[in-house]
Give the backbone structure.
Amino acid sequence: MDAAANGRNGSVTPRALIFVHLPKCGGTTLNRLIEWEYPPTRIFSVDPSFFRWSYRRLLKWPPHRLARMMVFQGHMPFGLHTRLPQPATYITVLRDPIDRGISEYYYALSRVVHPEHRKMKQLSLEEYIQATPYANVQTKLLAGQDPGYDFLSGECSDEVLARAKANLSQHFSLVGLTERFEETLALAKVIFGWRVQNYASFNVTKGRPRKDDVPGEMRDAIAERYQYDVQLYDFARQLFEQNLAAHAEAVGKELTKIEQARGAANGASYYFRSASAARKAISRMHSYLNL
């Protein structure tokens, strides 16, 4: 069991857990689960709407305040561990870049409150893919950037890709995959000692076409535009398979428990989602007040 799992009930944890939440990769579901595993007042949640401002404010925290946190989660680049007084480990979940690109477009298109909703209504999927400054966002975030840099925009390169691969290999206790989320969750239970007594999906994009329903030439165009994310995803899949093989027997047992946890959440859906919203609110409010 990873040392970061210790102290869930409030004792001092040897290692902080840093969850680099990659956009539209299933991270909202993982955030809600993490908030059941650790005290909400010991979790810093980067604001999902104002993540640049929130993350940069976090970097100004004094060491004694950072040391109290057991978990840091949200849209942020790799590198927070260099600012912490306590040791830390990372987790993340990557998604097939073609599927992620499709989901990102339809998510903004379907949500009136999304800041880019009006813009999306004027663009086709192909136009969005070619115009977005956020191409290869998984590679950019996992490579890490200087805090003054807009860590979602900017150009990608072979050097950035190499840095992202090295970070995943050297600093991450768990590299998960959206397409194999329950196996990812089972690995988290084994590595960190999580309980996961209830499990449900959050923030799922509805009304979007499946990847296989998108024309092949469009999928090829996304793969070309997101070429660095495609290469990074292939690398992450290798790390995932290696980790899975190393814990195969334990993961097999935990998968059964995760199925039971999903059933438990479905059986008490209103309570579980309401309680999850409450824990999220406590964590967010505590994070905001401390900014």
